[in-house]
Amino acid sequence: MAKTTAKGYAALHDPSMNRGSAFTAQQRKTLGLEGLLPIGVDSLELQIARVHTQLDMLDNDLQRYLFLMDLQSRNQTLFYAVLMGDPARFMPLVYTPTVGEACQKFDHIFRSSHGVYLPITAKGRVKELLKNWPQKDVRFIVVTDGERILGLGDLGVGGMGIPIGKLALYTAVAGVPPELTLPITLDVGTNNQELLDDPLYLGLRQQRVRGKDYDAFIAEFVDAVQALYPKCCIQWEDFANFNAVGILQKYKDKVCTYNDDIQGTAGVALAGILGGVRVTGKKLTEHKFLFMGAGSAATGIAELISQAMAMEGLSIDEARARNWLFDINGLVQSSRKDLADFQKPFAHKHAASNSFVDVIKDLKPTGIIGVSTVPKLFNQQVIEAMSEVNERPIIFPYSNPTSRSECTAEEAYKWSDGKAIFASGSPFDPVTYKNKTYIPGQGNNVYIFPAMGMAVLATQSKRVTEEMFIVAAKAVAEQVTQAELDTGLIYPPQSQILDASLHTAAKIAEYIFDNNLARVKRPKDIEAHIRKTAYRPVYDPA
Ligand SMILES: O=C([O-])CC(=O)C(=O)O
Ligand SMILES: [Mg+2]
Q1: Which of 37, 88, 229, 253 has its CA 20 to 30 A from that of 418?
Q2: H helices, E strands: number in the chain
């Protein structure tokens, strides 16, 4: 929401200004609020405590999600103070897994609007619609077309929950000022018949537009953003593979943009692997990865790992040869005729196989990475096979939300007899197995995208490059202590995610300055500058 200076009654209804019961007596006088609030004056701490009590009264996480969204549209400072006070507790509410359920039920739970909806029927008028957003300086847009929301598929306009949730984390996790962010949904229709048949559905009631008209709409959108907000970075989120890959290819060298599912996920996977590599004692170049799923998330991770392996001495071809994909049609290998261009670098010579377990026994990967959106594919046989060929198998079920995870943390630890190096896309509780407690890490792009946002903000970077994700991955991984590795954690603990993200952001920013991508002058101490720029959820002094 835009920062404003509303007065009187309007001040109570402007989330960027509203303090509710925390307006001081003096402010109430000056702003004309006397009589509009009960006489008591709360501190922010007391307001936070009240929110916790109210959350405790609710029966389930979807209700808590709705409560928090209402809070966001009522009192922004309090919303972020609550989130940032306990990120480990609140991330699963405003983000995966609860946000997935909220997107599925979007039309039924809809209350008030946040962000901008651009229907393809407004073709030619995108700029005009965007101008209705009150804020004139927007630095981050997270945009979806709702076609592949987490692993839940086409949710049409209901996908909006994702840009809203991601941007809340830009702020809560890396301190990006909320007034600079804007969630957007491009409504190009939906192919989800259940939605089309639902009288409560709020999006366009038509099949998805494809091809030239779709591309032209995306182009108009990018142009409009450039024209209105020249310093803005566009993050593409939860598009179907074929659109995600094409859009990124088309715009990554033209404007400041990235795709979180391809590049952010790749960054966080590489960070987890660098952490995991420390546990295995083997060099990165000695590892070999097998992906369950061969979409753009898989190829994005495989490519970033390959680049990182190449930086450690392998040729890029040797590096790619250590990354294998497996999908619904079996092992991706060079004789397959159904492959898209973006999959071909990872289609190596090998006999066809439809058995993931056989492929594990044959290729002996050191890690398996699940980006299939199909739950339970890492079954007991798979994890036992990985444990037979590895002292410490890397098991990363990355599909979201929890209901789509390739296995649970408990399954991974149990079936590997406590040997698994584990991280999952959505959170799992700690697991006790044979008297030892393991803390499963959340290998979610939340360790990357907020930090990337903060770095881009602090530098006004012209572009977002591939190397920036390698820098980010290394910065995340280097913060994990040996004691944390010993408990199974390969990412920094979520309780300290703000601090970790600010450090990661500083490392990325340093790279941006070093490579002449910045549009601002280099500060003497980059990390101090970033920490100073970061949003804090406090009321400005009266
Ligand atoms: O949103 C998340 O939790 C991670 C992500 O980008 C996805 O699964 O699409
Ligand atoms: Mg996503």
Answers
A1: 88
A2: 24, 14
Question: Same domain, yes or no, for 354 and 432?
Answer: yes
Token code pair at residue 237 = 């989120």
Tell me: do 142 and 192 sit in the same domain: yes
Helix axes of 497-514 and 449-459: crossing angle, nearest 10 degrees: 50
Q: How far apart are CA 453 and CA 455, in angstroms?
A: 5
Domains: count for the chain: 3
Tokens 């995208």 belong to: 449
pLDDT digits (tens, 9 = 90+) for 216-249: 999 999 999 999 999 999 999 999 999 999 999 9
Please state the ipTM of this predicted complex.
0.97
Of the candidates 257, 144, 128, 304, the one whose C-alpha atom is nearest the C-alpha of residue 208 is 144
> What's the whole-number mean pLDDT along residues 434-443?
93
CATH number of the domain to which 335 belongs: 3.40.50.720
- Quick check: helix, strand or coil at residue 468? helix
Q: Are 70 and 109 in contact (CB under 8 A)?
A: no
Q: Mean pLDDT score of the chain, rounded to an integer?
A: 96
Residue 94 CA, ligand 1 centroid: distance in Å: 12
- Which residue is catalytic, options 166, 252, 474, 507? 166
Tell me the angle at which helices 265-280 and 296-311 cross, rounded to the nearest 10 degrees: 50
Q: Is residue 467 part of a domain?
A: no
Residue with tokens 């360790």: 447
What CATH number did the domain enclosing 211 receive? 3.40.50.10380
Q: 309: helix, coil or strand?
A: helix
Find out whether 382 and 369 touch, Cβ atoms under 8 Å.
Answer: no
pLDDT band at 348 (very low <50, low <70, confident <90, very high): very high
Q: Do 22 and 42 touch, CB atoms closer than 8 A?
A: yes
According to DSSP, the β-strands at 257-259 and 233-236 are parallel
d(CA 349, CA 334): 5
Q: Which residue owns the Cα nearest ligand 1 atom 3?
A: 96
The angle subtended at Cα 410 by Cα 405 and Cα 414, nearest 5°, is 125
Structural domain span for residue 114? 93-255
pLDDT reported for residue 91: 97
What value does the mean pLDDT take over residues 352-380?
98
Look at residues 446, 466, 494 and tell me which one is the last residue of a structural domain. Answer: 446
Model confidence over 177-196: pLDDT tens digits? Answer: 999 999 999 999 999 999 99
What is d(CA 468, CA 466) in angstroms, rounded to the nearest whole number?
5
Environment class of residue 102 by beta-carbon count within 10 Å: exposed (0-12), middle (13-18) or buried (19+)? Answer: buried
Is residue 486 situated within a structural domain? no
Closest atom, ligand 1, to C-alpha of 264: 6
Does 4 score more than 90 pLDDT?
no
Side-chain half-sphere exposure of 522, counting CA atoms within 13 A: 13
Q: Which of 3, 29, 80, 95 is catalytic?
A: 95
